[in-house]
Amino acid sequence: MTVTDVTPESIDGSVDAEAARTWIFAVHQWIRRQPSGTQLVGEVRMPGPGWNYYGVRVQLSSDSTLRLLLNAAIGLVAASEHENVPEFGPLRFRVVPSPEVFEAHGLRVASATQLAAEISEADLHALPESRRKDVLYHGPTTVGDLLFNWFD
């Protein structure tokens, strides 16, 4: 099993207070390792109608902003661009800087390359019929769009 295996659990998402606490603690640890000026911007967004992941914006010292994401159902962390990207997707994934911080807290980190992989027939067949219909209706094109989706 790889970090980005598609399963029903991986796309359904969940609200998991313990996973969220672990992740936000790791986010704070991660910020401390970044260059001076890196900071949280706004509040943590919980999974809700229309998306299956937690997210928080981080202002980098380079004057750019990224989103750190958590799929709590599978303990998977990712990063996406913030500027010029729809709030709920599809997302434009990027490298998670210093992934070892999240891994030290028992979370898995997906690479931008893994998340940009096209959805395969095997990915679709791993899902129940009702979820396949959602995928066909909403039209995500990448594994990342399934794991961090806007149509939950």
Total DSSP E strands: 6
What would the average pLDDT be, to the nearest integer?
88
* Low-pLDDT segments: none
Helix content: 25-40%
Would you mind describing this structure in some detail?
The protein is an alpha+beta fold. It is 34% helix and 20% strand. It has helices spanning 8-12, 17-33, 99-103, 112-116, 121-125, 129-138, 143-147; strands spanning 39-45, 54-59, 65-71, 76-81, 93-94, 108-109. The radius of gyration is 15 Å and the shape is globular. The protein starts with 7 loop residues before the first helix and ends in a 5-residue tail after the last helix. The model has no long low-confidence stretch (mean pLDDT 88).
Helix and strand arrangement:
Elements lengths: L7 H5 L4 H17 L5 E7 L8 E6 L5 E7 L4 E6 L11 E2 L4 H5 L4 E2 L2 H5 L4 H5 L3 H10 L4 H5 L5
Parallel strand pairs: 4-6
Antiparallel strand pairs: 1-2, 2-3, 3-4, 4-5
Keywords:
about 150 residues, alpha+beta, 6-stranded mixed beta sheet, 6 strands, globular
